[in-house]
Specification:
Distance between the termini: 46 Å
Radius of gyration: 20 Å
Shape: globular
Number of helices: 3
CATH class: Mainly Beta
CATH topology: Outer membrane phospholipase (ompla), Chain C
Length: 317
């Protein structure tokens, strides 16, 4: 994963380089930037969102839906609660006359607290997410344990170019609905055990509504790890191979050391935001490739901004 870490370091350097370039702009631009920085990132009040992800791989298809409601207590601090649902199309059907097995189960409900501010000229967001298991791992798409994920996002802006760095830590691969990343949405598996994550990349905005992005990521676990498959059911007598460390393609549950869940790879995406006929919906289309697992997935994500719709209807924005 040496090349991945080098790329992450380059992106971090770009953040500071962009910051210095902005600092050298004219006094008029500096004054404008200062005024923009002092304006609230978000209004206070209720928030809401819905998210749907379709992830297609050679091993099967995972659909994930999540809905959340929340409240912004200040321009910097807010929180959300939500529910999730998974539908999985697996090729490992136990019925001989069917090629696919369809399963729809609840995921873990989640609660998050988020903080947004400007730090040393950079935009900084930190999100702490907790999940609650509704039942055992055999009955819902869950590890059967409480989940905790701390995620941090740092970015800067320069003439439509937005380099960023993400980093965090968790006790497993918790689903994120605030700033979801291409490599962690609608996975074909879930893990339990300490794991840290790093991502560096950039996006470029075109015509205000379209942006192209790319990034490299690394997942660095430590200690004993468990993997729970979303493709191989607990009662399944049919499974695929475990080539390239893909144990979630072979068994429902696997236990091992940190090599079991270590991962690195890269992503690319196109984001379409608030165009004329999709004013309250953002669309993201992309592809993620895991170098460790030699595994690719294409995805489409739709995110409905209920907050903007509510504030438009109530004339609060």
């Amino acid at each position: 994963m040496g090349k991945t870490y080098k790329l992450l370091a380059v992106v971090a350097a770009l953040l500071w380089t962009s910051k210095l370039a902005l600092a050298q702009s004219s006094s008029h631009k500096a004054s404008s930037a200062s005024n923009a920085a002092s304006s609230p990132v978000e209004q206070t009040g209720p928030t809401a969102f819905a998210q749907a992800v379709y992830s297609l791989t050679n091993s099967g298809t995972v659909y994930n839906e999540g809905v959340g409601v929340g409240y912004n207590f200040s321009p910097h601090m807010g929180g959300d609660i939500g529910l999730t649902l998974y539908t999985v199309q697996s090729p490992y059907s136990i019925v001989s006359n069917r090629d696919w097995r369809w399963t729809t189960l609840l995921g873990d409900p989640f609660l998050d607290v988020r903080y947004t501010t400007k730090l040393a000229g950079l935009d900084f967001t930190s999100v702490l997410t907790g999940t609650v298991p509704l039942a055992s791992a055999e009955r819902v798409y869950s590890t059967g344990r409480f989940g905790v994920d701390w995620f941090n996002h740092v970015e800067t802006h320069y003439d439509g170019f937005t380099p960023f760095v993400n980093f965090g830590a968790a006790n497993g691969t918790v689903d994120r609905y605030i700033l979801p990343r291409p490599y962690d949405i609608a996975r074909p598996y879930q893990t339990l055990g300490f794991i840290s994550d790093f991502e560096g990349g950039a996006s470029y905005t075109i015509m205000g509504h379209y942006s192209l992005g790319a990034s490299a990521y690394a997942l660095v676990p430590a200690g004993t790890q468990k993997v729970f498959s979303r493709l191989v059911a607990p009662d399944s007598t049919v499974a695929g191979d475990a080539n390239h460390h893909r144990v979630w393609n072979n068994v429902f549950e696997a236990v091992g050391n940190s090599s079991l869940t270590r991962d690195n790879g890269y992503s690319g995406w196109l984001n379409i935001a608030r165009i004329k006929y999709l004013k309250y919906v953002d669309v993201q289309i992309g592809y993620t490739y895991s170098v460790h697992y030699a595994f690719g997935s294409a995805f489409v994500m739709l995110r409905f901004n209920g907050t903007s719709l509510f504030r438009t209807l109530t004339a609060t924005q």
